[in-house]
Amino acid sequence: MSPGRIRALIILAVLVLWEALPRSGLVPVLFLPPLSLTLAVLAADWPTFAAALGVTLSEVAVALVFAVGGGLLTGALVGGLAGPRRLLLPVFSSLYAVPLVVLYPVMTAWFGIGAESKIAFASVYGFFPTMLATAAGIRTIDPQLLLTARSMGATPAQRLLLVILPAAIPTVLSGLRLGGALVIVGVVVAEMLIASAGIGYLVTFARTVLDSPRVFAGVLLVLLIAIGFDLAMRWVERRCALWSTAGRPQSAPAAAVPT
Amino acid sequence: MQPLAELNRDAAPAPRGMIEVSGLNHAYATRQGPVQALENVALTVGQGRFTVIVGPSGCGKSSLLMMLAGLRAASAGQILCAGRPITAPDPDRVGVVFQEANLFPWLTALDNVAFPLTLRRAPKAERQARARAMLELVGLGDAATRYPHELSGGMKQRVSIARGLVQDPPVLLLDEPFAALDEQTRMAMGEELLRIWAATRKTVVFVTHSLTEAVYLADEVLVMSARPGRIIDRMPVPLPRPRSYEMMASAEFGRLRDRIWQQIKAPAR
Q1: Helices (H) then strands (E): counts for chain B
Q2: Residues ≥6 apart with Cβ < 8 Å to A100
Q3: Does A169 sit within 8 Å of B116, measured CB to CB?
Q4: CB contact under 8 A, A151 and B71
Q5: Which residue windows are transmembrane per the record (chain B) (predicted)?
């Protein structure tokens, strides 16, 4: 059996158990509402869930811009220039280990309990891995490639745009994947702690009133966001890193090249 | 030949060689004190000549080549190329081929060859036409759309040579270009390089530590001593051209090869 088929079977088994365990009475419905009930609640109250999904997605989108944009820029700077690297890299590496969630209450004090505090927190949360991965990616570039570019008369700007950035893409992409995942985590966690809207808020609110089906409906939506992000990243990786996938089918050069 | 005629008309007085190096010294600091890497190196390479620099490892022959390429500054001395000093990389005058092919893995063979023209913002049609012509020259006309990971070691190095020639510089510098290749490929690449050289009439400076390669390729072999690197012998290679594999078995070839070996083995003090 192929790994893909086994994966599909595992997912199917989880879904079946999700339905069967509470239905058979083995697990109380309060702990685990059946899948069908969860989906029914999701459908019945769709306007509420859709609004929450919209709030969460927009927060994730804006935080992604800050985390990824800031992470790429700072990472390029820290990775590319010795001065900023010696100054900042030890600090950033240490900060990465700090559980940043302790800062979240401070952020609500600064930015209020609306979207701004979620965006601020998730941006900081996703910034560090993106930045560290970009810095590492730029530092691991083969210096011979830069020497070669220099021998061909490349200016510093051309070396950055035409050599360093393309060479850093694979590492940067893995940073984006990690950073993006943490942005989603950051937004949802922030919504669950102190908020008035979003899926995280919905989940926490339903939990306090012991409304399990709504809790699981929210969890399902978060899962969908994460899967959607993963699919998007895979698409980007396929587009950007064609060259790094050795063993891809070879094109027929003779036919493809008009001479 | 048109370019040479123009060169002689423009430059007054006419340069003795395409490359002229005089009084080149290089020292660098280490924790143990200053190290003299090159000592009073002087050399002249005539237009269209194939010169090979050979010497023991660490003699500074690669450093010397990097200086000729404008990629490294010497402590003292002068390097003239086509009558003008070399102070920075100048792809109009000098093309460089390194030990590793150093192709950009995200570009096709064609785009790699065209890269120097991309840097100068040449029109796309011109870039592609030039790059295609260079790939044809090195015998890789049908590999234009392949990526470096789809090419063998020898093919990569041929792409690298095509890239070094794409701006049509009068000088081509090669830094142990075949050292990373297996023996068979290495022999074939030497032959290939001589064919390309004959077709383009470039002035070539080729660094190697292989004595056989040096004698097989060169018009003149410059032998360098161990550190501090000095040129201890200038040996013309009177073997006829085109060179052939059979010549390597000749007594003359052996005598030339032995003359280099005797000097590298027991460096002059």
Answers
A1: 8, 10
A2: A121, A124, A125
A3: no
A4: yes
A5: none
Contact B153, B99 (CB under 8 A): no
Among B236, B243, B240, residue whose Cα is nearest residue B221: B236
Tokens representing residue B182 in the block: 């297996």
Residue (of A191, A189, A176, A168) closest to A234 by Cα position: A176
The first and second tokens of residue B195, run together, are: 């064919």
| ipTM entry | 0.86
Q: What is the tens place of the pLDDT at every residue in A207-241?
A: 998 888 899 999 999 999 999 999 998 888 887 76
Which domains does chain A show, CATH number per domain? 32-240 (1.10.3720.10)
Give buried/exposed letters for A124-145 (b at 16+ CB in 10 A, else e): bbbbbbbbbbbbbbbeebeeeb
- Indicate the pTM of the whole model: 0.74
Q: Do A251 and B145 touch (CB under 8 A)?
A: yes
Chain B environment of A148 (Cβ under 8 Å)? 96, 98, 102
B 78-107 residues with CB below 8 A of A?
Answer: 89-91, 94, 96, 98, 100, 102, 104-107
Mark the ranges of chain B whose per-residue pLDDT is less than 50.
1-15
Is the pLDDT at A259 greater than 60, yes or no? no
Closest Cα in chain B, distance from residue A159 (Å): 9
- The whole-number pLDDT of residue A161 equals 87
Q: What angle do CA B180, B149, B155 make, to 5 degrees?
A: 50
Check A153 against B89: CB less than 8 A apart. yes
- For B211-240, the pLDDT digits (tens) are 999 999 999 999 998 888 899 999 999 999
CA dihedral A169, A170, A174, A177 (to 10 degrees): 60
What's the CA gap between A83 and B134, in Å, rounded?
A: 41
C-beta of residue A214 within 8 angstroms of C-beta of residue A206: yes
Work out the widest C-alpha separation in chain B, in whole angstroms. Answer: 57
